[in-house]
Design a protein that fits this description.
43% of the residues lie in helices and 19% in strands. By secondary structure, the chain is of the alpha/beta class. β10, α13 and β11 form a beta-alpha-beta unit.
């Protein structure tokens, strides 16, 4: 295969139910100047077999790499990047798929806008919000310089973290030696912030480009020692990166917002650990970040202080609300709600329900508490109960408050919390 316009890099791990649709969504595009790079990361299901069959049927468009052991999504993407011949790189998760005719539209737009280094795309998903147009609406469909784009993200207080939301010039990646950090989760964060701070230009593609499938068993929702270590690693990386930036206000401000976002996630992933896992985390911190005078004591103090601050913040919030032994309902499923429930139960509070309309959570259990849709409730279900909305986003919190008020739930019964 020679040079192509698009290289679509698809790391694959145990997605036999989705991989064929993913690849076919690329092959069925009305655009041919592309290559597909499938990296099977030692899948335990039939994903590898499906990938091999697809590569045999489509030898002129598809490159297939079989990892000899499980290397992780970061290393798999880096393998794809190293063999990619495309002018632009598209990162596609193996359970996602491209929208019909989206590549041809994007190709024309890139040419029309004189080949920007990055494209921020319109993503469709089955969870709320259904698309990211609530963010894209802040931008005109014109070429933006780095300062213009970062200034807008700072003003509107949103973070762009996932690599599948953007298309990137390979030249930008090579020129700045950018690759994926070999960590369990949050590898996108490290990659994307370097892309955004090194790019010269970006355009907004408001045409539907990609369908993102959220799954409760995806790597995104990984917990445990390696996940906590990953967020700590990215937190340190951003701190170090900031020290090298001089007289670039927009970049520094953007990194400050990103750092706080990562710090919030780090609190969550630390707080979910048990004593044994905390000990394991300290050992791994000493191994990967050894340049400390007394690392064991310092890391232990840092972790325990972080957990203590998180617990104190929740307790203070409840104290300000004058909450006694009321029954509490948590709105928003996921690891944030798990941490909140853990701390509430530790302090003697009863958590009655978890509420969420996201189909990936409804019907499941978190800490033996059922996740239920808001639509099955009415005012009588919540009489004298407290409902705590748990989310990072103020906009999401306000939307949920509106939903609850429509159910005639008293405003005094509704509170919110973010880490």
């Amino acid at each position: 295969m020679g040079k192509t316009f698009f290289s679509i890099v698809i790391p694959v791990f145990n997605t036999e139910k989705f991989i064929k649709k993913c690849v076919q969504s690329v092959l069925n595009q009305n655009f041919n100047d592309l290559e597909i790079i499938l990296i099977n990361d030692y899948s335990k299901d039939k994903s590898g077999k499906i990938c091999k069959e697809l590569s045999i049927k489509n030898p002129n468009k598809l490159k297939f790499v079989q990892n000899k052991k499980n290397l992780g999504v970061s290393t798999s993407r880096n393998i794809g990047l190293n063999i990619a011949n495309g002018k632009y790189i598209i990162f596609l998760d193996s359970d996602d798929y491209l929208i019909k005719n989206s590549l041809n539209y994007l190709y024309k737009k890139i040419k029309l806008k004189n080949y920007p280094e990055v494209i921020f795309n319109h993503i469709v998903q089955k969870k709320e919000p259904k698309t990211n147009l609530n963010i894209l609406k802040y931008f005109f469909e014109k070429k933006l310089f780095k300062k213009q784009f970062l200034s807008k993200t700072i003003k509107k207080n949103f973070i762009l973290n996932e690599c599948w939301r953007i298309v990137v010039s390979k030249d930008l990646i090579i020129r700045n030696k950018i690759n994926f950090k070999n960590i369990k989760i949050a590898e996108d964060v490290s990659f994307v912030f370097k892309i955004l701070t090194h790019m010269s230009s970006i355009i907004i593609n408001k045409n539907k480009f990609l369908f993102h499938r959220s799954r409760a068993d995806s790597l995104k929702y990984t917990k445990g020692v390696d996940a906590a270590l990953a967020y700590y690693s990215v937190y340190l990386e951003i701190q170090d990166y900031k020290k090298r930036i001089r007289n670039q206000k927009e970049i520094l401000n953007y990194l400050d917002i990103l750092k706080e976002n990562i710090k919030s996630n780090m609190k969550i992933y630390f707080s979910i650990l048990n004593k044994s896992q905390i000990s394991q985390l300290i050992i791994k911190m000493r191994k990967f970040f050894p340049n400390k005078k007394n690392p064991k004591l310092e890391y232990k103090k840092f972790i325990l202080n972080t957990i203590e601050q998180t617990e104190r913040k929740i307790k203070n919030s409840l104290y300000q609300l004058r909450v006694s032994q009321k029954k509490i309902n948590i709105y928003c499923a996921g690891i944030m709600s798990e941490v909140l429930i853990k701390i509430l139960m530790k302090n003697g509070f009863q958590v009655k329900n978890i509420i969420d309309d996201d189909p990936i959570w409804v019907g499941k259990k978190i800490m033996n508490i059922n996740v239920k849709k808001i639509s099955i409730f009415n005012k009588s279900h919540y009489k004298n109960d407290l409902i705590i909305i748990c989310n990072h986003s103020e906009k999401v919190i306000n939307n949920i408050k509106t939903k609850l008020k429509k159910l005639k739930i008293n405003n005094k019964q509704i509170s919110s919390f973010s880490f």
